Amino acid sequence: MAVFLLAAWMLAVMFGQGRCGDAARIGARLAARGESDAIVAATVTRAAPPHASVRVSRHDGLVDVEVSATIGASALGRLAPRQVVSARAVAAVEPSLPAGSGDGP
Predict the structure, then answer these.
(1) Which terminal residue of the chain has fewer beta carbons within 10 Å of its beta carbon, N or C?
(2) Is the pTM here over 0.85, yes or no?
(3) Spatial separation of the C-alpha atoms in residues 101 and 88, rounded to whole Å
């Protein structure tokens, strides 16, 4: 039983790491397109694991989004310690398009 619970915890950690990576990439893309930090943080929070922390910074024409979360299983005690997972994505700020230059008809 303990082996199964430990394997389940390891899968939760790997899944949490993947969610942090996806959330960071989503946030970096939104920020690069000019969304506000509040919208970026709200969207990233929905995509990230529960209780994740989000950091958005802008510098030198780049946006940097970092997401971290603690994965743990308190019911498993010492068999499954808490693990911090995190991911970071950086994207170049996209230039603004002039009004009326879209792909529409």
Answers:
(1) C
(2) no
(3) 32
